Amino acid sequence: MPASRVMSSSSDAVALDYFELVYQFVRLIPPGKVVTYGQAADLITRANLTARQVGSAMRWAPADVPWHRVVGAGGRLPVGKRDPQIKMLQLELLRAEGVQFIGRSFDRVDMSFCL
DNA sequence: CGCTTGACAGGTC
DNA sequence: AGACCTGCCAAGC
Prior knowledge:
The protein is mainly alpha-helical. 37% of the residues lie in helices and 7% in strands.
């Protein structure tokens, strides 16, 4: 909840911060497809935007952003130090879209579903 | 200005 | 596989 964003009211139409850029990008991901934080960071042209920033943006994603289609590198689900729950939720949402999971405990996305 | 905090990534053991 | 470690960079204090 970056105060800078919460406080932003009306005059931020021009000052498009990187959160908005990330959201715009994520909204383009079709159902059943996924991208990694790193890919998003690379594809979004912005000064030194890294996977970390994409991650923090996802934490405050608006309802219309399919945040669950963004996974960690190698198809790993996010660690979620602050909220261990998101992993489970994301797993459910992706499975509902037909995304396959692989690995010992089916905890990683089959990257052939990558965008 | 320095230090801490992450829904990260990549490497080592 | 799981537990660390390092590099990364914006944000807050």
